[in-house]
Amino acid sequence: AGRLESWAAGTKSPAGLLDTAYSLATTRSALESRAVVVAADDEGFVGGVQGLASGNPGATVVRGSAAGGRFAFLFSGQVSQRLGMGAELYETYPAFAEAMDAVCAELDQYL
């Protein structure tokens, strides 16, 4: 977080921050400790990273630890989906329903 803080404080380009966020999310090793900074602009991002680096994350920082197992699903929005598709998967496949319930339980606290 300290290295990211130093870099972010010196970056003035929103594209640079966007590219960095993408790279951090898609190309880094999946480490046990995780953090997300929710920000609407560069200033909010830098402030969130500074809080994370100093050990005093504010309300815009969400921290957590990776749990065992991996699960992902994607509805790409490219016409191959139809209304009610998720509900059908939920009703038909218990593993999908269980995973969806777990994801919803985690996200509900932020809604």
State the strand order across the main sheet: 1-2
As residue ranges, the low-confidence spans are none
- Could you describe the largest sheet, including whether it forms a barrel? 2 strands, antiparallel
Assembly context of the chains: single chain
* SSE series: HHEHEHH
In percent, how helical is the residue content? Answer: 40-55%
Give the averaged pLDDT, no decimals.
81
Quick description:
With 111 residues, this protein is mainly alpha-helical.
Could you describe the 3D structure shown?
- There is one protein chain.
- Strands 1-2 form a two-stranded antiparallel ribbon.
- The model has no long low-confidence stretch (mean pLDDT 81).
- The protein has helices at residues 2-9, 14-26, 42-54, 85-92, 94-108; strands at residues 33-37, 61-65.
- Helix 1 (2-9) packs antiparallel against helix 3 (42-54).
- It folds into two domains: 2-65, no CATH class; 71-111, no CATH class.
- Helices cover 51% and strands 9% of the residues.
- It is elongated, with a radius of gyration of 17 Å.
- The protein contains five helices and two strands, in the order H-H-E-H-E-H-H.
- With 111 residues, it is mostly helical.
Quick tags:
111 residues; mainly alpha; two-stranded antiparallel ribbon; 5 helices; 51% helix
Can you lay out the helices and strands and say which pair or pack?
Blueprint: H1 2-9, H2 14-26, E1 33-37, H3 42-54, E2 61-65, H4 85-92, H5 94-108
Antiparallel strand pairs: 1-2
Helix pairs in contact: 1-3, 4-5
